[in-house]
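User: Hi! I'm working on a homework problem where we have to compare a predicted structure to a textbook description. Could you give me the structure for the chain below?
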Amino acid sequence: MAFGAWLTASLLGCGSREDLVIGRDDYSLVRHDDFDQLDLDFWELATHTFDPNLAYFTAGSAKVEQGLLVLSITADPSPPMPAPMQAQKPYSAAELRSRANYLYGSYRARVRVAGGPGVVTAFWGFYDRYEMSSGPQIDNQIVIESGVAKDTGAPCLRYAVNVPMGAPDTVQRPTGFEPSTEFHELGYDWSPTEVRFYLDGQTSQVVAGDAAPELTQYQRLVLSAYPSQAGWISPFDPSQLPLRAEFDWVEIRAYRGSHP
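Assistant: Happy to help. Predicted structure tokens:
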């Protein structure tokens, strides 16, 4: 079975906040976090790593400074004291996850990404199969991540939807500007029929067709910044450290329409 139907026709730059298949009124506000403080009743600090992440996420790499959530990437080996059989990595990075899980919704963040080659800033949702020992062990993700593309050397945003019945399918779009120099609004609307990605209020990618019905698992919202050796991204340069991604605010809205 073919995976998804990627419905794009140079949408970047031609949409608007009103240019929606499903309107903004179909979502109700659940949380708006201005990061005046770090609410650890709502957010969980990650302390793990994965391939191709070149760092460990550490709790001390995420903090609130002057109304901004700062996710730092530093040349600090982590974890500082590895457990037996645990390999230390040469860098530290940061990730926050919502403790709550959501099924369908509208997600936005105003963010200044961490720039530079080999660095990812991500705003995404995932089904936490690691905590669902009795649930299906599947990948179910909606991802926006920034980086410098390996093939062009230009800043880009990478949109991905991973569902159980198909291989991960992604689209990269050049931003046309340097997203690390100022704040931009990123986000996506997730309904039973589609995932619609946004950049600064404009539609930049739509995923519908076979993919949307497969996104049926509750997801945690995640904010990340880390050095990466993923195949799509330019080689990481450690001399640029330290770096930081800054989130001005994050907003979560619940989908009010009917569910399948």
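For your comparison, note the following. Helices lie at 211-214. The chain has one helix and 17 strands. Good luck with the assignment!
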